[in-house]
Amino acid sequence: MRWLSRLLVVLIVSLIAIALPAVPAQAQCGGPFIELSPKSGAPGTDVIVTGQRFHADTLVDIYYAGTREDDRVATGRTGPSGDFAINFTIPEGYAGYYELRAYVHPDTVDTYFTVKPGLTVSPERGPVGTNITVEGRGFARNEQGIELGYYVNGNYETVGSNFTANARGSWETKLQIPFSARGEHKLDAEGIESRLYEVEDAIFTVTAEISIDKSSGIVGDKITMTASRFAPNEQATKILFDGEAAATDIKVNSKGEWEASFEVPELPSGQHTVTAEGQRTRKEDLGDLSFEIESSIMLSPDKGHVGMNLTVIGRGFAADEDVDIMYDGTQTATTETNDKGSFQVSFPAPESKYGEQRVAAGYSGGNAASAIFTMESDPPDTPTPISPANGNRLGFMSAVTPTLEWSEVSDDSGVDYSLQIATTADVTATGEFADPMVSEEGLAGMNYTLDKPLSYGTYYWIVQAVDGADNESGWSGAYSFRVGLLPLWGFVIIIVAAVALLALLVRALIRRRTIYYDRW
User: How much is the pTM?
Assistant: First the structure.
């Protein structure tokens, strides 16, 4: 029986000896060790390397797949107790086992990381039709026949095939998200060597979709937003412009679709954000659309006459900035915008040619917005010549300086007069003299005195009214007047003849007296 007891003791000792190597603490014999978390994954995985029982306050170098200096992926330092925790990202590489080594002088400890195939997608969320980039990493070296699937309606739908990995097990493709329901959808792949269940899939989240019919406009413009993939009959749905409600109480139908309109609010010029939200749809999931507010002005009135008061209302300009108002290229007013980029300023319409005139508003001479003011084009009445009356004679002698008078004409744009004098009544098709000897424009009153006398003869004169918008009346009918009874030479002849006659009479009288006295 003694040998049985000895045999039992030997058996127990042998079992203990076999079990001892399987106990980690005994296997490490109290020395330094490292651990990875996680221990496997696709390239791009963030890994934490933790170490214990190393020398305190010592430099730590982490090497991946080798011990060369250029394989070092991270560094750190042990703490007072000889522990450390260092993060690093698994670099690009094909599927398999990769050595990871921690060097903490004078100790070197190894472990292994298992690279598995996996997918990433960018962006990770968006509406149907979003352009995405899918990257495959950690596949077999030069693996062929890779097929990409998108999980929709309970099954994988092939969205790409025949991809080939490079020597590092990587590949890439671009595609559009196909029609699919709102929510999370898996992207997975498999190849000749990589099985579907081995590949870490990627997730793309299909969000509700919004669009607007204009990407730019002015304050007050009507903008229509169309949306889909909201929750069916979702409540409390509204449109947000720069975070503020622009439309509320929007009705969502049973398919999660809706359409609503809003007016561009009064805000400064530039880019602004437009989005939407509902009771179950977050604005963060939708993202923002961009809308540019452009500067605009409105004239009141937009047509009229010289001197009338014009009001310019500006919207969508820069906030708190000086704005110059230009009329037909000439600055007529200056004002300042408020914190919403709006202003209002008034000024009298300057004298300008009839028809369309551009009114512009801008900064330092640069036009940001403009509008059209239509200057009236109604001609004034034709004035009537008054003095000298038609056919009248002025003066007995020549060298008369006449004053011409005509009737007054009134016009909303103000009026001045043009005058012509000629020696013949010949006129052109427009009614003015063909060969005027005097032509005056811009006469403010209803009379005009010539600056030099007129000699003997017959003269003709006409008058015309011109308003502040350059509208011209017709020319009046030609009136004539005659200067002097006789020309100077005729008067001299008469004088000479009179003197000669007088001399003859005197001579005859003297002669008669002489004959009379001779008889006596």
Answer: 0.66
